[in-house]
Amino acid sequence: MLLRYAIPQIMAIFETPEQLYSYMSELFAEIATLPETQEALKSLTLSVQFNYTVPDCTMTLTAANGEYNIIHGVSDNNSVPDVELTMTGDVAYKFWTGELNVMGAITTREIGVNGSLGKVMRLAPLIKTAVRYNRERETGCDS
């Protein structure tokens, strides 16, 4: 007699591109008003393309002159981004909630980097602000 066991499938945090777009758009809209974000953006001139899998979608963040723009898809001016980061939607969630060791994830290729790692590091102040704010948002706490 052959016994078959069902292996439970783990649901992805984001089931559709729209869910991931909505999550990221809300996060960036909310942190844009924070003084730390405004300060970090002053010195940032960079284009980062986030390529996500599960769900498959692309977002492009462009920062210049103290402002940022995030679009769904690739940059509309056909310019090559300074950096491309590739990861699953679940890894993106862990990235933006601070549950992920980013350098470890890059080393193990959970996050693929195409472009200068130095330019990725220029995002650190913005990422730290987003992670701190997102943790507070996720837990419903204010610091």
Concise synopsis of the structure shown:
The protein is built from six helices and five strands. The protein has 143 residues and is of the alpha+beta class. Helix 2 (35-42) runs antiparallel to helix 6.
Report on this model:
With 143 residues, the protein is α+β, with helices and mostly antiparallel strands. The chain has a single domain (17-135), classed as SCP2 sterol-binding domain (Nonspecific Lipid-transfer Protein, Chain A). It is built from six helices and five strands. The chain has helices at residues 17-31, 35-42, 89-97, 102-107, 117-121, 124-139; strands spanning 46-53, 57-64, 67-72, 83-88, 112-115. The protein has a five-stranded mixed β-sheet. A hairpin with a 2-residue loop joins strand 2 (57-64) and strand 3 (67-72). Helix 2 (35-42) packs antiparallel against helix 6. It is globular and about 45 Å long. The mean pLDDT is 89.
List keywords for this structure.
single chain, 143 residues, alpha+beta, Nonspecific Lipid-transfer Protein, Chain A, 5-stranded mixed β-sheet, 5 strands, 22% strand
